[in-house]
Structure formats: C-alpha cells, structure tokens
Amino acid sequence: MNKLLNLIKSRRSIRHYSDVDIEASDLAKIVQAGLTAPSSMNTRPWHFIIVEGKERLEQLSHCKTSGASPIAEAKIAIIVAADATKSEMWIEDASIAASYMQLQAEELGIGSCWIQIRGRLTADDQLSEDFVQQMFGIPETVSVECILSLGHKGEQREPHTDEEVMWERVHINEWKAE
Ligand SMILES: Cc1cc2nc3c(=O)[nH]c(=O)nc-3n(C[C@H](O)[C@H](O)[C@H](O)COP(=O)(O)O)c2cc1C
Predict the structure, then answer these.
(1) Which of 76, 118, 171, 172 has the highest CB neighbour number within 10 Å of its CB?
(2) 33 C-alpha to center of ligand 1: Å?
C-alpha cells in the first residue's frame, strides 16, 4: 500500500492529548510542511501564529461557542491565517497549508484537530476571527481560517477504511446520479 495513502487514512481528528511536550524539531517540521504548501500564483500569503502555554491556550479555546475545546487541552495551537490583500484565494491557500501541517503531524505521531474560525461566533456573538485577531494583535488584513490544536495523542482513533470510501461520488466523463 502506498505510504502517503496510508498516512492519509491514519490521520484522524484527535481532540485529547497527553502531557508529553512536542519537540521543537517536530514543530519545525510541521510548520515547514505548511510553508511548503502550494498557493495560488505562488503568493504564499500565510502567517502561522504558534501558541503555547496552558493559560493562553485555555483563553484561546473561548474563540467560539463550541468545537474549540481541544485547544484548551493541546500542547500547542497554530493559528492559520493569511494576508487577504496578497491573495484573493487566501482561504484555499490557508486550508491547503493547514492540511499539509495535519499530515506532517500525523507522520510524526502527533495528533491534531482543525478548529474552524472563519465564519464562526463566540458565545457573546463576536466574530471568532475578531476574537483571535484581538488576542494576538493580528492586523485586520490578515484573515484567520482555522486553528490547529496539536499534541501527542491522548486518544486512539481507528484509521479510515477502504469500505467508507465514497466511490459513488466519482463521475467519469458525465454526471451519474447516485
Ligand atoms: C473545514 C473544517 C472545519 C472543522 N471544524 C472543526 C471544529 O471547529 N472543531 C472540531 O472539533 N473539529 C472540526 N473539524 C474536524 C472534523 O469534524 C473532522 O475532520 C471530521 O469529523 C472527519 O473526521 P476525521 O478528521 O477524524 O477524519 C473540522 C474539519 C474541517 C475540514
């Protein structure tokens, strides 16, 4: 079986983490994967804000009403942002970079979860993006797509299986109704 496909199947959203620290060299590899991702017209508009420290991560986990609790448990979070003035395709660019980082994390045995920020709200109806920008002094022109929570795995999840692959969603030469 192809090594990359196996890695893709093994990557699951990991929302619980152990107390073991992430090695600086592993974090560097994860970030390098993001910084090596393709981007529209090679504009490379990304900015990654690395967040460490229990208190800061706990505060950041209030960035939206639900679905952000993994941040509080994580060892490190990476805010995945991009300069929207540099590329109108910043959402795609940021998303691809985030996916690359998740796959590199998995290859290192580190669990990760994508926490959606763009388009989400905090408990008091503030835009999650504004909350994150204000907390870290991120300029308004730098938009936030998501946050990756990262840590050594505190839960084990089964890899995706071949049985769940939706081949029926593939259309060859013409649309085929399901
Ligand atoms: C665009 C996007 C937004 C997501 N937002 C969240 C989120 O806010 N919180 C969360 O816990 N998981 C989030 N996830 C993770 C998904 O729930 C997860 O990828 C999906 O259930 C499939 O499970 P898997 O990642 O284990 O394959 C998000 C994933 C994507 C791609």
Answers:
(1) 76
(2) 20
CA distance 24 to 30: 10
Q: How far is CA 147 from CA 1, 74, 80, 151, 160, in A?
A: 31, 11, 6, 13, 23
CATH superfamily of 3-155: NADH Oxidase (3.40.109.10)
Measured from CB, residues less than 6 Å from any atom of ligand 1 are: 12-13, 15, 67, 70, 113-116
Section 50-69 average pLDDT? 98
Mutation choice for ligand 1 from 7, 9, 10, 13, CB with most ligand atoms inside 8 A: 13
- CB-CB contact of 146 with 116 (8 Å): yes
Predicted pLDDT of residue 1:
59
User: Does the model's pTM come out above 0.85?
Assistant: yes
Q: Ligand 1 centre and the CA of 15: distance in Å?
A: 10
- The pLDDT score that the predictor gives to residue 177 is 85
Instruction: From the CA of 69, give the closest atom in ligand 1.
Output: 11
Q: What is the pLDDT of residues 144-166, one digit of tens each?
A: 999 999 999 999 999 999 999 99
